[in-house]
Design goal:
The chain is of the alpha/beta class. Helix content is 25%, strand content 34%. Helix 1 packs parallel to helix 2.
Length: 155
């Protein structure tokens, strides 16, 4: 089999996708990796081939700036949640999520933001969401999220 690129999730050091009547079935969410060998109906990937994180993360002292490069929706939820969990474990004073360029946040994404706020709040930290698209800002304010953490509309 020639090397091929598929989109599968990193669960451990290897991940599996299955092959059925309709072709390859992706069993887990999206992260890019390289398929190394085909052993029957299972393809095995090398963990050293994972793509970089979905967000640009800048740390400065006790403050962290997170810039997701994708919409915050169910298909990337596990990856984004894991990035934020790792950051919260470091007990930052403030986590700022810059949504510049993000056009969509679904209910799963909102859940991740709320969970991050709750975790930070328990650790005496704060969440701030900035550069929020006007439609997303309207959703956040309608849901009264701005009463729990800072939400700033994009200019």
């Amino acid at each position: 089999m020639n090397d091929a690129v598929f989109y599968i999730n990193q669960l451990d050091f290897i991940s599996i996708i299955s092959y059925g009547a309709y072709g390859f079935k992706i069993l887990t969410p999206i992260i890019k990796c390289k398929i190394l060998k085909n052993s029957g109906s299972i393809l095995v990937a090398n963990e050293s081939k994972w793509s970089e994180a979905m967000s640009e993360i800048n740390k400065e002292g006790d403050n962290v700036l997170v810039k997701p490069d994708k919409n915050i929706v169910a298909s990337i939820a596990d990856e984004f949640r894991n990035e934020l969990r790792k950051l919260v474990q470091e007990s930052p004073r403030e986590v700022v999520i810059d949504l510049a360029g993000v056009e969509m946040v679904d209910s799963v994404g909102i859940g991740i933001l709320i969970a991050t706020h709750n975790s930070l709040n328990n650790a005496k930290g704060e969440l701030k969401v900035i550069n929020v698209d006007k439609d997303i800002y309207s959703l956040f304010t309608t849901m009264r999220l701005d009463h729990h953490f800072t939400v700033e509309k994009a200019e």
